[in-house]
Amino acid sequence: MKLLLHACCGPCACYPTKVLSEQGVDFTLLYYNPNIHPYKEFKHRLSALRELSEKQDYRLIIDKTYPLEECMQGMLEEPVVRCAFCYRMRLRYSAKFAVDHGFTAFSTTLLYSPYQKHDLIVQAAEAAAEEFGVAFFYQDWRPHYQEGVDISLALGLYRQPYCGCVFSERDRYMEWKKPKTEPGDRLDPGRDAGDGRAENKPFVRITKNIIQLQKQDTILYK
Predict the structure, then answer these.
(1) Domain carrying residue 145
(2) Is residue 222 situated within a structural domain?
(3) pLDDT one-digit tens code per residue, 145-180
(4) How far apart are CA 44 and CA 40, in angstroms?
(5) Sign of CA dihedral 156, 167, 65, 220
(6) What is the pTM of this model?
């Protein structure tokens, strides 16, 4: 199996990559997260994933596409829960990228966090797998969340204080807008680790193991 592993950030990638390495899986990390706001936070998370990849000698593909307006519109128009847009957009991109670049399966580090909507992630991934004709590699890494946290702390990786989108940033910091709850009533999202392209070249190499993709004009989200 040649696996493309979408990674939302460095800390969330720590445990899944450790296990996949131990299992002998041939994997490559993919950073594609245009839902993360503001842009400074987007860069922090990318830097942490770069750091992990360099320290552990992982292959990493980077797409810095950042269509702010499309992301905001997509989340605002999502009929049930805005997270569905974020999951669907990134997993459709990952599935299509896997097919276009010779990977036999794809997965995501979103499956590691107990603070994400796990069933919704699986649903979006399975739909993307069917749409693009590629296997979805599923593993539930949530029971080992603390082990991943310990790895990220030992490596000194930046750990983000909120899920990623501008709405989760608001929900994290505008505490005065939330109804008061007793300790233990809810999970703390702050603990979540939750193409100027050349003619025929889909990416350009930065180092031996890190690839910088050219920015896309649009995103796949519908």
Answers:
(1) 2-213
(2) no
(3) 999 999 999 999 999 888 888 788 787 777 555 555
(4) 6
(5) positive
(6) 0.80
